[in-house]
Structure formats: C-alpha cells, structure tokens
Design a protein that fits this description.
- The protein is built from one helix and three strands.
- It has one helix spanning 37-48; strands spanning 4-19, 22-31, 55-67.
- Strands 2-1-3 form a three-stranded antiparallel sheet, with helices on one face.
- It is elongated.
- It starts with a strand and ends with a strand.
- The relative contact order is 0.40.
C-alpha cells in the first residue's frame, strides 16, 4: 500500500541557553508549510541574533498527516 504525506503545520523552535544547564525553547507557529529549510534556518538565525543569551539550536518541527 502506498502512503501519501500531507504537510499540515510547520513550527520554528529556537533553543536559548539560559545557563546552569537550563535551556529555553522559543516556538514560532504558522510557518508556511512550503518554506524550504534554508529559509527557516535564516529566520531562526535572524530571530536568534536578537536574543541576549546564546542560541544553542534551531529546529524545524513538521506535522504531517499520513494517508494510505
């Protein structure tokens, strides 16, 4: 049986190092589902550069419906 994917939602998560082994996640919803990885990373770097503390990671979370 063939399985098809249907992209439903994309989230951008920026992880900020708070010190003392603490990390805060900043989540941005409603990213266009057809945005490419380069664009999401560029947005994450731009937003991360505005943070007073160092960014420890930029993540993309995709929510996909599977049909089959």
């Amino acid at each position: 049986m063939a399985v098809s994917r249907n992209a439903k939602e994309v989230k951008l998560v920026i992880r900020v190092d708070e010190g003392n082994d603490k990390v805060k996640s900043l989540t941005y919803n409603r990213i266009k589902v057809d945005a490419n990885d380069e664009a999401v990373l560029a947005a994450g770097k731009a937003i991360g550069s505005l943070q007073p503390k160092p960014v420890s990671g930029i993540w993309r979370h995709d929510v996909v419906a599977l049909n089959g």
